[in-house]
Amino acid sequence: MINVIIAGPRGKMGSEAVNMVTNEENFRLVACLDRKNSGRTLKDLPEFPGLDIPIFEDIDQCFENVEADVLVDLTVPEVGYVHTKKAIENNIRPVIGTTGFTNEQITELNEMAKSKNLGGIIAPNFAVGAVLMMKFSQMAAKYLPDVEILEKHHDNKLDAPSGTAVKTAEMIREAREYKKQGHPDEKETINGARGAELDGMRIHSVRLPGLVAHQEVMFGGAGQTLTIKHDSLNRASFMDGVKLSIEKVFDLNELVYGLENII
Ligand code: NAP
User: Fold this and answer.
1) CB 3.0-4.6 Å disulfide test: which of 26, 50, 96, 206 passes with 152?
2) Among candidates 16, 24, 25, which has minimal Cα distance to 47?
3) Rounded to the nearest whole angstrom, what is the distance from the C-alpha of residue 12 to the centroid of ligand 1?
4) Which atom of ligand 1 lies nearest, measured to the CA of 163?
5) Pick from 98, 97, 94: nearest CA to 119
């Protein structure tokens, strides 16, 4: 039995995670971390009738009161970062879906986990199809190095570009020589028209209500284009990856970044 704490249970991802964890027979939800409702239980909230799971606001108090193996964090980066640090310090394996961590934070957290031989994962995208999109894009970039990334998300998303887009560009960078996309003398007549830049690749972010999480990786070559596209149509698409991560962190002795490391 794997004892799990979920941070951010009222969120769109967090509530899916609560449902997934409570429906898995090998997982036990032992507590939730929530900035509201401290001292109450999940069953006091209208979303979770019947779930007698304690809610804590303070992570130290939570760790003092419950025995946990894994912390799943689905909140915001500032909070997720502190939660991940505290989890590692307390030998609780972090499974982090929160996006927007800086490279420095990821490196620091990785070093902390390594020094404790503790497994963990930070995955900007838990959808298995999205990981395949990234892998296929890395393969394609070897042969078609001209590439631009278009990511589209709901308009409540706080970080841009998306963690998935950055991760995709980083994976492509491993397979592709540096190349600045577009004309060498191009000029933006409106700031930002060409999007963000990573290693010469352009990343364009769209934010609209109605969208969930979508990405197209577009390659161009002489007389041809190739588009690799993935759509998450709802948040259930991420739960297979969260489940797999909760199980796989026990086989790791460091904190890995990206679901592709365990698939
Ligand atoms: P959401 O619906 O806005 O939920 C965010 C949750 O975090 C809410 O419960 C919110 O509580 C809580 N929260 C916000 N600020 C907080 C703070 N200062 N302290 C404590 N809790 C706080 O967002 P979501 O769509 O579920 O996404 C959550 C995170 O997962 C985001 O970082 C998002 O980018 C990421 N995400 C990851 C994946 C993946 O596959 N890895 C997929 C989708 C989203 P309040 O109601 O009190 O604000």
Assistant:
1) 206
2) 16
3) 7
4) 34
5) 94
pLDDT over 90 at 145, yes or no: yes
pLDDT band at 7 (very low <50, low <70, confident <90, very high): very high
* Per-residue pLDDT, 263: 86
Nearest ligand 1 atom to alpha carbon 99 = 32
Check pLDDT > 90 for residue 53: yes
Enter the pTM of the model. 0.85
> Which of 40, 42, 75, 155 has the most ligand 1 atoms within 8 A of CB, as the residue to mutate?
75
Mean pLDDT of the chain: 96
Dihedral through CA 133, CA 136, CA 140, CA 145, nearest 10?
A: 50
User: What is the C-alpha to C-alpha distance for residues 157 and 154, in angstroms, rounded to an integer?
Assistant: 6
Residue 174 burial (10 A CB sphere; 0-12, 13-18, 19+): exposed
Burial class for 185, CB neighbours closer than 10 Å (0-12, 13-18, 19+): exposed
Give percent above pLDDT 70 in the chain: 100
Reference 211, options 187, 235, 190; nearest CA is 235
Residue numbers annotated as active site = 153, 157
